[in-house]
Write a structure and sequence with these properties.
22% strand, globular, 268 residues, 5 helices, alpha+beta, two-stranded antiparallel sheet, 6-stranded mixed sheet
Length: 268
């Protein structure tokens, strides 16, 4: 069985996201390799960012003040030591709470380079929770601005409903998912594909060096390839609500109908 949804599967936006992110990057490269002229190569590039571990993919606000487990106090005066030595020592019960930890998270992107000069022609970014909030979003936007100052095309795939969108002038249309394409010859203009929850993910162009034509990237076929390879439908809990943010009433009804048609969930 494949995903019960015609487009993006919102249940992937939770604990399975990191695994899906890497698998989707591989699927995108596999789809592009046979379509690219021999003068180009599609490569995977890995970088690491810091994000909270253990508390859920969107569960920790990096702006919170974290207090250390150990603190330093002044040593008591001798008189205070003599006075306290006669008192009974009472041990208070401890409260066991987790400490927020940071871990390095690998993020994969797809680079289209020309073989002769290794020039970065097109960068395909799959946005992740780690670069859609707090310091991670600021770091990503800075990296994005640096790319936009070069002669590299930038294709950004945002399949996460939660978190900040990339910085653009003007108001984005309401949609849970977006694809953004910044061509070197059209900057500062950016092509935007809003994608509804019930929509099939689009086929978008991947630009190359002039005069070479764009090559198509079928994002829905990429998601399907991930399900075919891993079988995410066996790992996702379709009986529960999808990861946050919560769906509105009409979206929730649509989601339950999709699950019923797929024979995954019979309850309302």
């Amino acid at each position: 069985m494949a995903s019960p949804f015609p487009g993006m599967d919102p249940y992937l936006e939770g604990e399975m996201w990191q695994e899906f992110h890497a698998t989707f990057a591989h699927a995108i490269r596999a789809q592009l390799v046979p379509l690219l002229p021999p003068k180009y190569a599609a490569l995977l590039a890995k970088r690491h960012v810091l994000q909270s571990a253990d508390l859920g993919i969107f569960g920790w606000d990096s702006s919170r003040v974290i207090y250390p487990d150990v603190h330093v106090v002044d040593a008591p005066e001798p008189d205070m030591l003599r006075e306290s030595s006669t008192e009974r020592t009472i041990t208070a019960p401890a409260v066991d709470l987790p400490s927020p930890l940071l871990e390095e998270v690998p993020l994969l992107s797809v680079e289209i380079r020309d073989v002769a000069h290794r020039r970065l022609v097109t960068l395909i970014e799959i946005l992740s929770p780690a670069n859609k909030r707090g310091d991670g979003a600021r770091e990503y936007n800075q990296r994005r601005l640096e790319i936009l100052r070069t002669q590299t095309h930038l294709l950004e795939i945002d399949l996460l409903r939660q978190g900040e969108r990339i910085a653009l002038q003007g108001q984005l249309p309401p949609a849970p998912y977006f694809i953004f394409l910044s061509r070197t010859n059209r900057r500062p203009r950016t092509e935007v594909w809003p994608v509804a929850l019930s929509d099939r993910l689009p086929t978008v162009p991947v630009p190359l060096l002039r005069p070479d034509p764009d090559v198509p990237l079928d994002l829905q076929a990429g998601v399907k390839a991930c399900f075919d390879l891993v079988g995410y439908e066996r790992l996702l809990d379709y009986a529960a609500q999808p990861p946050p943010p919560p769906l509105n009433d009409s979206e929730n009804r649509w989601l339950r109908e999709c699950l019923k048609r797929a024979g995954v969930c019979d309850s309302d």
